[in-house]
Amino acid sequence: MEIPQKILVPSIAKNTLYNFLFRGSGLFFGFITSIVIARLLGPEKLGEYSLAFWILTIVGYFVNLGLPTAVTKYISEYSGKKDYASAGSILRNCSRWIFWAGVLVTILLFIFSPLIASLYHKPYLSTYLRIGALGMIPMGLLAIYMAGFSGFLRYDLIAFLTFILSPLTFLLLLLALLLKKDVEYLFWVSFISNFLAAFLYYEFYHSKKYPYVKEGLAPELKSKLINYSKSIFVILLLEAFLWERFELLFLGAYSNETQVAFYNLGFNLANKAILLLPGALAGVLLPFMSEAYGGGKEERLIGIHYNSTRYLALIAFPLCAGGIALAPKIITSIYGSQYLSSAFIFSIVLLAGTVGSISTASSSFLYSVEKQKVILRFYVLAVFLKLVLNLFLTRKYQATGAVWVNFSAQVFFGVGVIVYVYAFFLKKKFPLMSVLKIGFSSALMGLLVYLFSSIVSGYPGLILCMLLGVVLYPVILAFTRALEKLDFDLTARYIQKLPFGLDRIFRSIIGVLRRISLGEETR
Questions:
Q1: What does the pLDDT read at residue 2?
Q2: 62 and 87, same structural domain?
Q3: How many CB atoms lie within 10 A of CB 14?
Q4: What does the pLDDT read at residue 296?
Q5: In sequence order, which residues have a C-beta less than 8 Å from that of residue 396 and are 6 or more positions away?
Q6: Angle at which helices 458-479 and 432-453 pack, to 10 degrees?
Q7: Claim to verify: residue 217 and residue 282 sit in the same structural domain
Q8: What is the structure's pLDDT at 198?
């Protein structure tokens, strides 16, 4: 095919907006879908669906093999060099590799599905896994083409296709559940939506005349792709075992479907909250730290790490405290009283996720200074700890034991990484007093919200409690003097851009809080 000499790339600001829209819409429809599935299926059927879906998720890693991440990295790299022939060759060859990996995984899953079902003593798993196996190839190809668009920095096209596919998938799921409340139908919908999505991405890629070169890869580039993908595959698999629901491997074998449902629902809801708020800041730390490291700006790198640790605490602590305070109300209001047992799971996962969020500053630091092997060692140790604890706690205490296993492993990893970075790299001490003040302020806010929640009920009561927490938190931070001058300066810089006179209102509020906390006026 004809190789383009220039490819349209939206500005960084536009790509950031498109990426936010893509991720935000995905989280929104995922959240709405989880509510519909939970309410219409009930705990037992939801447990069946959750266990099969988790197994298929882990199997999916052996289809992707870390290749989508490699495609994004190297297409970006070669596009930057204007070598679109190599970029097109990367996509074409990696899509072929994923296709044949998908064929192999599909065949193996078809063959071994009855064995997996017998190991779990759950005959229904065989049918669900075989239907899910049909979606492995389109799922892998979808991941590759999304990675290709990301590599060419066309997040606008990803956002556009997501806006089409997400509501369509939701409507298909809703229709399937209304026609018959059967888990099997959900996996058929998943297969259809993956197939349709892969087809649309393929058509868009070729209709926009992006490079797709049928020649083989240069030996050096092929070697780089394979080596990079192998290391990414290992890291992603370990991350899945640590941060995802590895406990379901044991919970599915040791307990009933209801326990699986309670664990999965509480875990997923807490995970989405952590991904949406602290995750938004954590996602931008690595490029900033890498830029500082590459430029030899050691003091700036240390400053970024120190401040980001505080800001992650400022976001994660109140989310955790407020979430724990409102956990029963959140679960019953959204999913129904039948899932009340998930409230405890939700609370503990939030607590573990808070430690994990704060440790992101330290893990990003290690990645930026090219110390990935240190992170890998902590991953291996944390996953080993999970494996051992699951054999005892999950077997005896089921969902409750599983969540404490998750908590122990995540806290071990998070605290370990933080201690390692401060012990061997940083000149500054950990901002302990600042973090303790933020923690105390968050706990006090959580207590007040909890007391208020006892006198209100329903959705309006839940919304009022959340609004009360948002108002109380900065006030308490100011009175405990947990805020620093830099916090107010950064806030003042951003509120200047607010429209409709809101900047004046917020400037007055910030001025009051500044006087309370620092004894200064806003400049």
A1: 45
A2: yes
A3: 13
A4: 52
A5: none
A6: 150
A7: no
A8: 87
